[in-house]
Amino acid sequence: MSKTNDTPEMTDEDREYEQYEKDCERLRAENKKHLSAFEKWLTDSGLAKKTIKAHLENAEFYISHYLLRDDGDCEARNIPDGAWHVGGFFDWCIYKSILWSADSVRKMGGSLKKFYLFMLEQGIVTQDDYDDLKETIKDGMEDWLDTINNGRGDW
Q1: Angle of helix 49-61 relative to helix 12-44, nearest 10 degrees?
Q2: What is the spatial distance between Cα 130 and Cα 80, in angstroms, rounded to a whole number?
Q3: Which pTM was predicted?
Q4: Residue 6 placed within a domain
Q5: 119 in helix, strand or coil?
Q6: Backbone φ and ψ of 4, nearest 5°
Q7: Among 90, 124, 129, 146, which is 20 to 30 Å from 83 by CA?
Q8: Range of the domain at 96
Q9: In a domain, 4, yes or no
Q10: For the chain (length 155 residues), average pLDDT per consecutive 10?
Q11: Predicted pLDDT at 73
């Protein structure tokens, strides 16, 4: 008597999602190493423990949650790619009320600029990546703060 396999064959979509999950696992491991080195860098710079903790939490949220979230394209984004997605991140966080005050928006911007400066010094991102991130945050800050202060408008 032969056994039949009742498991349906994997579709291309299933394989794509499986690869996405593997990519996320790999990137989370890489991100953990980068965050550990970032913590040492922050500590060596003489910042207070509370400030270090805030920068780490903000950077981790961005690189290990936002950049790896499945927004329908099954694409896990790495740290260099993240430099080019920061505007969408702030829009998304404000829309979802994750960043809900002017202070939280400013602190997140400061944390991401500090993290990406560290990534630049480590050779993980390019000067163009870093400059684009800084420019996006600078250019978007007024609009994000207006949105926070005046309600979310048509969102």
Answers
A1: 160
A2: 9
A3: 0.88
A4: no
A5: helix
A6: -105, 150
A7: 146
A8: 12-150
A9: no
A10: 60 90 95 98 98 98 92 84 94 92 96 98 98 97 93 55
A11: 75
